[in-house]
Specification:
By secondary structure, this protein is mainly beta. It contains four helices and 21 strands. The radius of gyration is 23 Å and the shape is globular.
């Protein structure tokens, strides 16, 4: 039984909990896949006995569940919404690795998402149902650490520790909001304590992890810009809130071009030069498993929007821990984000206050969220094939005025109020057999807006039952 849970792929939680276990034709015919996708010179054909060429393993999974939803109607976001739905998501992973007699190993990690309209693959007003969900190459340098390059979450996110949930899908749990089941109403959207830097997970980046020494490990990532090569740029508006009314990314159109071309350097609200760092510790004391982490991120805003200096470089930091003992797991974590904002946009622009590089909006023009805090705590218990747990989350952000806004502020930079979120999750899992799970959960979220506007407040209950299969 895994006592310490480690989130290693951000929104793709099940992908890392259930690593690829089945070998797909691991022969020399596939050895060319990955880092060695070139004909092998004859001089290299007679490799030593300690060398293993790159081989490919395949894995993946399917999740599906039935949901019942109860939320506010009338003037609130739940108006004219259905109260039930069937949801499914599936994916296939390809993991290749080769080992060499000098102690170095290298490989590639790819994912194909099927039956999944991914907001990461924004193409005009359409979304692709079958997509490459990300891919990267890696180099394990024995005692010198590990290097990754490609579209994959950064160091701070991969080294995270905190509260988890026994619900074996990404549909439930504050730190795995892949499906965003609780449709956020105010600027907070879906709460999480992960360092996401404006949802930069799928942006191309390079990451280095040190070897683990005395239980400690350090990781550092760098991404030149918040976009994914050969795709339209994406921001938190696309991933978390469904984009703007027109369906296009906020202030990002045309900033990420095709391979071989260079993106623009002065896109308003774009966050560039994104650096993440993470430090974690793994240890065991008298039968108690301990995992702890600290993470931070920093970026630079490419250009201001709205004709003023309301935006700033996005900064985030956080920490968390997970403690396990005899089937119990107790976890807690927090995150701070300045949301890329100092205060709201200029009055009269017609634009809503926009979080630079995050796409997060306030419901009142000229006001923008800043200084956001997220925190959550959770307890789970595992015994045999059963697992049950509960967790609580809280989030808040200050709403800052730009130019004077009648009814909320009398001067620029004042705090109009705070948006808040409170939520709980109760969930359980039964493992029928290896890779086959039955799940059930109850989730509740409540959003309170600083202006008490009904369009930015909601109270949602979600009841779910389903299955999750991994191979």
């Amino acid at each position: 039984m895994q006592v310490i849970y480690r989130l290693f792929r951000g929104i793709d939680v099940e992908r890392e909990v259930h690593k690829m276990k089945k070998l797909l034709l691991g022969t020399s015919a596939l050895a060319a896949v990955g880092l060695l996708a070139m004909p092998m010179p004859k001089a290299m054909a007679a490799a030593s006995a300690g060398t293993q060429p790159i081989q490919i393993k395949v894995g993946g999974g399917f999740i599906g569940f039935l949901q019942g939803v109860s939320q506010k109607g009338g003037l609130y976001p739940g108006a004219n919404k259905m109260n039930r739905q069937l949801y499914d998501r599936s994916w296939v992973d390809f993991h290749g690795i080769g080992k060499f007699d000098n102690g170095i190993s290298a490989g590639v990690d790819l994912q194909i998402r099927t039956n999944n309209a991914s907001p990461l693959q924004y193409t005009g007003n359409l979304q692709s149902a079958d997509t490459i969900g990300g891919g990267f190459a890696f180099l394990n340098l024995a005692q010198y650490g590990r290097v990754e390059i490609g579209a994959t979450p950064g160091a701070a996110r991969k080294m995270w520790y905190g509260a988890n949930t026994p619900f074996r899908t990404t549909a439930h749990g504050w730190n795995s909001p892949a499906t965003g089941q609780l449709g956020g109403a105010n600027s907070l959207g879906q709460p999480t304590t992960l360092i996401d830097m404006g949802d930069v997970d799928r942006a191309e980046k390079i990451t280095y992890f040190t070897p683990r020494v005395a239980g400690f490990q350090l990781g550092v990532s760098y991404a030149p810009e918040n976009c994914m090569m050969n795709n339209e740029p994406f921001t938190g508006a696309d991933q978390n809130n469904g984009g703007t009314a027109g369906g296009a990314p906020v202030g990002q159109a045309g900033s990420c071009l095709f391979f071989g071309q260079m993106p623009a350097s002065n896109i308003a609200a774009q966050q560039n030069d994104i650096v993440e760092a993470g430090l974690n510790y793994v240890g065991k004391f008298n039968g108690v498993d301990v995992g702890a982490y600290l993470g931070l991120g920093h970026a630079s805003v490419a250009a201001q929007a709205y004709g003023n200096s309301s935006m700033r470089g996005l900064e985030e930091y956080g920490g968390g821990t997970n403690i396990g003992y005899q089937g119990f797991q107790l976890g807690a974590s927090f995150r701070y984000s300045n949301e890329g904002n100092k205060f709201g946009g200029a009055a009269g622009t017609g634009a809503v206050g926009v979080g630079a590089g995050t796409g997060i909006q306030s419901e009142v023009a000229g006001i923008a969220p800043t200084n956001r805090w997220d925190a959550n705590v959770g307890l789970t218990y595992h015994t045999g094939p059963w697992a049950v747990g509960a967790s609580y989350a809280y989030a808040q952000s200050s709403q800052k005025c730009g130019e004077a806004v009648t009814g909320y502020c009398t001067a620029s930079g004042q705090t109009a109020g705070k948006d808040k979120f409170n939520g709980v999750v109760f969930s359980g899992n039964y493992a029928i057999g290896p890779g086959v799970n039955l799940n059930a959960g109850i989730e509740h979220g409540k959003w309170d807006s600083f202006d008490n506007g009904p369009g930015a407040e909601n109270s949602v209950w979600i009841y779910s039952v389903g299955t999750a299969l991994f191979f």
